[in-house]
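for the writeup, i need someone to sanity check this before i put it in the appendix. the sequnce is what the collaborator sent (i think, or maybe the updated version? ugh). structure was predicted straight from it, no edits. if anything looks off just tell me and ill rerun, i have time this weekend
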Amino acid sequence: MKRKTIAAAAAALAAAALTAWTLWGNTALTAEKITVSSERLPAAFSGFAIAQVSDLHNAEFGEDNEKLLDLLAGLSPDMIALTGDLVDSRSTGLGIALRFAEKAAEIAPVCYVPGNHEARIADYDALREGLSAAGVTVLEDAALPLSRAGESITLIGLRDPDFAAGSPGSPARRLEETLTALTQDASGFTLLLSHRPEYFPVYAGCGIDLTLSGHAHGGQIRLPFLGGLLAPGQGFLPEYDAGLCREGDAQMVVSRGLGNSVFPLRVNNRPEVVLVTLQAAGAETFAEK
């Protein structure tokens, strides 16, 4: 009887510890630092740092996202990239997203592409106008040059394929056509912001050098040695769930994101901001930010 009591108490303590650890892990922000090297990157862009914020889903880390903003400011990025699902279609208030974006734009220039949740909300136009008013560059199937010390790269932003749901052709085919049109006049290094990582073969096939993506939520539940368990658009044990991926000369960084959507908890999967630092191959090593 005594052994059973001890075993039951131990099991209860273990369950309580696991619950506490999981809850902590859903709010304990972390910064993942990734260096991306490319022979095509102009030397002037060596050390150019991009803080990637993805899949906020209207989450708040501290009052008015103070903790998230402090983390971003501490990273001293040259640019902040918002790679979709800033809001959640099940909780469509825009206030959290717009207040965050306004404060983020005071830290560094902010560029944004919409995700699948933005495609579902009726007031997306209001979100886009609010972001623009806050100083955010909204990229919807658009390209623009980024200049630094007399050299430039091309920044491209894609809106989520769900914005064109019901249009002729597959999403992959439509993305390929859009990217082909956007890159036909591009020269040199190309940086793509696109919410969905599952289309990496399309991005690579269109000659994109580096893609920043999200959407996978890190696989939601991360298994030791295996990675993410399940991601939308990829199913179980997704190939593109987090970190740096390569296909030929193309590279992609997938953020595990910040908020949650259908499944309310992350497991072994802390919310993250990714600091992507560009490095021109052969250039002198830069000082880490």
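DSSP finds seven helices and 16 strands in the chain. The longest strand covers residues 30-38.
thx in advance!!
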